[in-house]
Fold this sequence. Notes:
This protein is mostly helical. The chain has helices at residues 3-32, 36-63, 67-97. It has 3 helices and no strands.
Amino acid sequence: MGRKRLYFYTIITGASGFLFAVIWLRMFWQYAGKTSLVSAAFLAAYMLGAAAGSFIFGRIAQRRKKHFFLFVVTQFGLGASVILITYYFNSFQDRKST
Length: 98
């Protein structure tokens, strides 16, 4: 697989990750209120997760030869986290409405 193709996939998944962050922030605003403190806390947590993931998977990628396989596994993990986090926020909305 060519580098250009891998860069394309990386940009697409990064953009979708950012899109989900915006969706989660809007869901979080419904639960915690729409304040700058809530937004800053959410942004800090998102950036901390991105930095920690980059650090951990960067070290793992240095030791592996199959980078595309690691990329695919990481994307499946991110997809699972999207489902879990969305379910988690929806469970808060269900509790709030009752």
